[in-house]
Specification:
Oligomer: heterodimer
Structural class of chain B: mainly alpha
Number of helices of chain A: 12
Distance between the termini of chain B: 5 Å
Distance between the termini of chain A: 28 Å
Helix content of chain A: 25-40%
Low-confidence stretches of chain B: 1-18
Order of helices and strands of chain A: HEEEHEEHEHHHHEHEHEEHHHE
Largest sheet of chain A: 7 strands, mixed
Shape of chain B: elongated
Mean pLDDT of chain B: 83
Radius of gyration of chain A: 22 Å
């Protein structure tokens, strides 16, 4: 992948003014993330300095093309949500660069946070906690608009428009309070709030996970419809593999703060390369009682992110783990030369892993 | 949320209905409705209102001059034909003095708490929202005040500043600011970590805008509840300061001061001596009960 080379593109040449829509043209990725890292310090004792760190996100890099939906999956605590918060800068990253349509975010010549946030918005998982119980729906939606200098009347009109967009009748809902709405309605309001500032990229952090299945389907359809009408790009974070398969163009798999696999949804779901992805996918329950799963494909919990295993972080739970996995950290690479990349010694030719072979794209898939 | 909506129709999602939709009530409207249906709150509110009105209208409703002494009419008993509540040790009309004293005592109950709410609330919200070093600095400074019992602290500050109304006001404000700052800080810290504050930050709003638009509306309730419970304490401590000679100086009427001067007559005219204390008790009790009702009326899971 070219992501590691491309990440510095934004710094040279591109002017630091607020970007008009689609500055870089269709070929320029909307978002380039390179090597972002966040270690949360754990202070031991009251006056002690930061002794240890939780390595929540450790060198994550990926690109999001314009108009695509990038699914992000992984177990709880793998850094999905931290990544989302880093992207929209609710948390400051310790290192790494984020480039939005050719413009770096932050830095002396980059986009300011406010400029970035006008283009990137986020929908949170907890539809209830993410709405202020004291504000009406209209006030919630217009808040962000007014903060961006839009006058009251325009903001009110925009609120009506976005409520209409998400399928809520403005005259019925704009004066209501969050506790008067159902979970699905609240999540629609959250989506409306995110859309109100007319973003280009919407980060959906488990946005449908807390909804019941029928409402989840409605909201997913709504999201798809909105994406089509407003030419949006999504980063769709979820632990629900079926939903991710349904909505995504490409899927990114995270494990303990690292990207371990990234590829087009069909390729990744049909032929997962990383043993962890394999395990994740086979942990999905089948509708057929004949395909009962007797033992869990992945056993145990992820290791402690304070002190992750050396080399490959998955090796402690991996059925392919060998000596090399503990010594050397695998890098993301494309074994078949295509868009499907994986960070696994067993899939990287000439890595020294016995299952890897020496060269060439032919890969054997040992059954677990 | 079910506790609130149980009596009302729940909003219907689909299909716009005909006719008017049920009116939405804000948190404050709901709290006010609940408060105005609480018999305890109503009774105590009425008592406080009567005392407050009497204090405000003192010059027009008092039958006698509260400062006119009369050696001949000293310590007339309660129920006297001319002086309904009797007279004090200098022959001044007790009813008039109680009404005039209410001005001072109520002022000393509300004003320091109001000032402390503004100052402490501001400090606490800033500390809670900013967190980190700013929080540390503000909260550790307020912690210093916790080293002293509140009454002792008030006495000490008044003692240093000297007697007088303004000095009592200053000392009481200083006494009440730290606990209010602490309450404000703890609720702000909770609110700050809510998703809706994160969502507001994600829209690019500035810190002040978020505090005014999102934080304030969620922390005022708890701060007000706590402040209202401080009013009775303030009345009692202010009376205590006057009792000790550190507050209002004679011949001004003030309940604590009256209690002090009538103390010597307690064996001669016990009822007269008790009256100022009774007023302190009634007013502080009422404000405490109102504070209680306020808390339960705001205890809405929304």
């Amino acid at each position: 992948m070219s992501m590691f080379m491309r990440s510095r593109v934004g710094f040279d040449g591109s002017p630091a003014t607020a970007s008009a829509l689609d500055r870089g043209g269709p070929a320029q990725p909307l978002l380039i993330v390179d090597g972002i890292r966040k270690y949360f310090p754990i202070t031991s004792g009251r006056f002690g300095g930061a002794a240890t760190y939780v390595k929540a996100v450790d060198g994550v890099g990926f690109e999001v093309a314009k108009g695509e939906t990038l699914g992000v999956v992984g177990e709880s605590g793998c850094g999905k949500s931290t990544t989302a918060r880093l992207l929209i800068r609710l948390i400051e990253p310790d290192a790494g660069t984020i480039v939005l349509d050719g413009d770096p975010v932050g830095g002396p010549r980059g986009l300011t946070l406010r400029e970035m946030r006008r283009q990137v918005q986020m929908v949170f998982q907890d539809s209830y906690a993410s709405l202020n119980p004291r504000l009406t729906i209209k006030d919630t939606i217009t808040f962000g608009l007014k903060a961006n200098g839009i006058d009251r009347m325009t903001a009110a009109r925009r609120a009506q428009t976005v409520l209409d967009l998400v399928g809520l009748n403005p005259s019925m809902f704009d004066q209501r309070y969050p506790h008067e709405l159902s979970g699905g309605q609240r999540q629609r309001v959250n989506i409306a709030r995110a859309l109100a500032v007319e973003p280009r990229l919407v980060i959906l952090d488990e946005a449908v996970s807390a909804l019941d299945k029928s409402v989840e389907a409605q909201v997913l359809n709504l999201l798809r419809e909105l994406k089509r009408r407003l030419a949006l790009t999504y980063i769709f974070i979820s632990h629900d593999l079926n939903v991710v398969q349904h909505v995504s163009d490409r899927v990114l798999v995270m494990y303990l703060g690292k990207v371990i696999e990234l590829g087009p949804v069909d390729l990744l779901y049909q032929r997962p390369l990383h043993p962890y992805t394999e395990g994740l996918l086979s942990s999905r329950l089948s509708m057929s009682p004949r395909k009962r799963i007797d033992k869990p494909p992945l056993s145990g919990d992820p290791p402690n992110p304070i002190n992750p295993p050396s080399g490959c972080r998955f090796r402690t739970r991996c059925h392919l783990a060998e000596d090399i996995c503990g010594r050397l950290e695998p890098k993301l690479g494309a074994p078949s030369g295509g868009p499907h990349v994986v960070a696994c010694h067993a899939r990287t030719p000439s890595s020294g892993h016995s299952a890897a072979g020496t060269a060439g794209p032919t890969i054997t898939f040992p059954s677990p | 949320m079910s506790t609130l909506t149980s009596a009302e129709p729940i909003a219907v999602a689909a299909a716009p209905r005909k006719g008017r939709r049920p009116a939405s009530r804000s948190f404050w409207e709901t709290a006010w409705r609940r408060l105005s249906r609480d018999p305890v709150a109503l009774t105590c509110g009425a008592i406080l209102l009567v005392v407050l009105l009497a204090a405000l209208l003192a010059p027009w409703i008092t039958p006698h001059d509260p400062y006119r002494t009369s050696m001949a009419r000293r310590l007339l008993p309660v129920g006297d034909a001319r002086h309904w509540l009797g007279t004090d040790e200098l022959g001044r009309d007790l009813l008039a003095r109680l009404i005039y004293g209410g001005r001072m005592s109520l002022f000393m109950g509300f004003a320091p708490v109001a000032l402390a709410t503004l100052i402490g609330g501001f400090l606490g919200i800033v500390a809670g929202y900013c967190g980190g070093a700013i929080n540390m600095a503000i909260m550790r400074i307020t912690d210093v005040f916790y080293a002293f019992p509140s009454v002792l602290l008030a006495v000490a500050i008044s003692g240093v500043l000297g007697a007088g109304l303004v000095n009592s006001l200053v000392s009481l404000t200083l006494v009440f600011t730290p606990p209010l700052a602490r309450v404000a800080e703890s609720v702000t810290t909770q609110v700050r970590n809510q998703d809706y504050v994160e969502a507001a930050r994600a829209t690019g709003a500035s810190g002040w805008r978020i505090v005014l638009g999102h934080v304030l509306s969620n922390v005022t309730g708890p701060i007000l509840i706590y402040a209202s419970s401080m009013i009775s304490v303030s009345i009692v401590i202010a009376s205590g300061l006057s009792f000790l000679g550190l507050g209002v100086s004679p011949p001004n009427a003030e309940w604590g001061l009256m209690l002090n001067t009538l103390r010597q007559s307690i064996y001669v005219a016990p009822l007269n001596a008790v009256l100022p204390g009774l007023m302190i008790f009634i007013v502080s009790m009422s404000s405490n009960l109102i504070s209680d009702s306020l808390r339960s009326s705001m205890d809405v899971k929304v």
